[in-house]
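Example record used in the benchmark description.
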Amino acid sequence: MKPLLFLLFLTATSMPAQPVAASAEGKALFRSNCAFCHGLTGLGGRGPSLASAHVGALPDSEIQSIIKNGIPGTTMPSFEGFDAAELGQLIGFLRALGSGPVTAHPGGDAAHGAAVYQASGCAGCHRIGNSGSIYGPELTRIGSARSWAYLKESLAAPSADISPDYEGVAVTLKSGKKVTGLRLNEDTFTLQLRLPDGSFLMLPKSDAAEVRHLDKSIMPAYTTLPERSLNDLLAYLGTLRGTATGAAVDKAAGVH
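Model output (structure tokens):
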């Protein structure tokens, strides 16, 4: 079963009538389906933290609907394989997550964090709304899609978790020219890359002397940022909860 990326856009609606008690079975279901994105303790990772009052504020029927149907327009998939008993066990565990103490992270100045974002050149690779580059992941709603801890690790050690969609490739052409970009697609005869300027390159493999699939992220590690600037940047990223634009790009026009 695929990992469960759960509840990206939770909004408080009404309190549940009859909470389901947490159980060892619910914990096991969570760890085998949800922990990949939300962490073993539910405090977040690739997905947001589930240890919040928002989860407890949703009725069982709404949580069941989200699990079964997913959330359109997000990476939260549908899971139709759970039976009624398993759904109850999983919901009970989720409610228990929201009832325990949550470790607070340092606060920060989001306004100063926006300035740090610009000064650090983040917009050269990332897009927020209609501003920035499409080279790296879009950040328009990163604050609701990723936890504080995950974002901090991504800044300090970006190679710790590289999405397959952002695998770097370094190519040395037979002419001696070197090209580095993100692998978009690959077949028997060609390699398609997204270049740092946002354009696309369809490269015949017959032109390549060497193709190396990088095991490190193309994103640099921001290990020299002062602690205050780092916390301010994280605070700013946490405010980004808009709608991803999925910027349209004319691939044909960009291929060269």
